[in-house]
Amino acid sequence: MKVIFNSINTNSAGTSNITKTALNQCKSVNHDEYICYVEDNKFFKDVNSNNFTVKKVNFGSGIKRLFNRFLFDFFIFPSICKKQKPDAVVILANYSPVPLKAKKIVLMRHPYLVDDNAWKLIKTRKHYLIEVIRGLMFKLTLLSTDKVVLQTDAMCSMFKVKYPWFKGELVKIANPISNDILSLRESKITSLEQREKILFYPSRYYSHKNHEFIINLAVERSDFFRENNIKFIITLDENGEASHLLDLIRIHNVDDIIVNLGEVQQSELFYYYKNSLMLFFPSLAETFGNSIVEAMCCSLPIVISKKDYAETLCLDSAIYLSGKNLDQAVHSINKCVERWPELSELVHTKSYSFFDSDEWVFRILNMKED
Length: 370
Known about the structure:
By secondary structure, this protein is of the alpha/beta class. It folds into 2 domains: 2-176 and 355-366, Rossmann fold; 180-353, 3-Layer(aba) Sandwich (Rossmann fold). It is 43% helix and 15% strand. It has helices at 13-25, 62-84, 116-119, 125-143, 153-162, 179-183, 211-220, 222-227, 243-251, 266-275, 290-297, 308-314, 326-338, 340-350, 357-366; strands at residues 2-6, 33-39, 52-57, 88-91, 103-107, 147-150, 169-172, 198-201, 231-234, 258-260, 278-281, 302-305, 319-321. A 7-stranded parallel beta sheet has the order 3-2-1-4-5-6-7. It has a 6-stranded parallel beta sheet with strand order 10-9-8-11-12-13, sandwiched between helices. Strand 1 (2-6), helix 1 and strand 2 (33-39) form a beta-alpha-beta unit. It is globular. The chain starts with a strand and ends with a helix.
């Protein structure tokens, strides 16, 4: 079987890590031929694979980038598929607007494409316009898609409401977890007493990630955090769209409570998964949430927004935040500490329901549903 994987649109730490996990760790190809297209950028700088043929594409920057990306999506990639004659094409993130000469499998992993509540969180006209364009591209994609893959039951339910006219097959397959993370399930758990008083939130900036809630909580309940020597650790790009949030942290003098690591490699996150007090995850919308599963594999208790994505992923293994209530958030932190051994065991058990890249590729290509 010849399969082309299109990972051109996986230009974030989270989505690119999923592609790299498959490229570096999938060993199930045997007699199959797998080709993967990625963008030549910082996320795929050192990517290599013994099992995939990796093709890097450089789009340039500015207007040139937009023009080259248009050419690739509408003309170059369809031409590649016509010439290569693959048995299947796997679009690893959302968009492939032109019909292809192969079975098209699309992974939907952008919450704004299905979650109408996420649109209410958009703060700028630029962001709104971008999401409108993305929505149109996705609708074009669906017209020629055979199968759509979503990561949770919540996403499947919202998809059915948003696109009742979709004629193809809809399946749920969770994201793959790297072998490095999965191996941590067997590691000795650092006890509560030995852990640092860190509330860990590894996430890049998007409006729906709700970093503002953490800043507001730190400002309004600063006495609680300082008296208990509790810190938030976040991972925002210093030079990216989150610069205004980092300015707020400094202006409100809570940079002793909220510490920003900047964007870091996944391997650097292991320390915080293994030694933090809890994962504090206030995001208001997710298609999956790899950070949540990674925390589970490290037996790290979770405090998370009470949203559909969280409840379908965590079930009863997490403590839930309700809206913007700051007192309830402090209560949830205290409750998590009180129930720490129990919650640590619950998330550790839940982590065994997730799988590696071999199983993921098998399910994607065979459409073996969870």
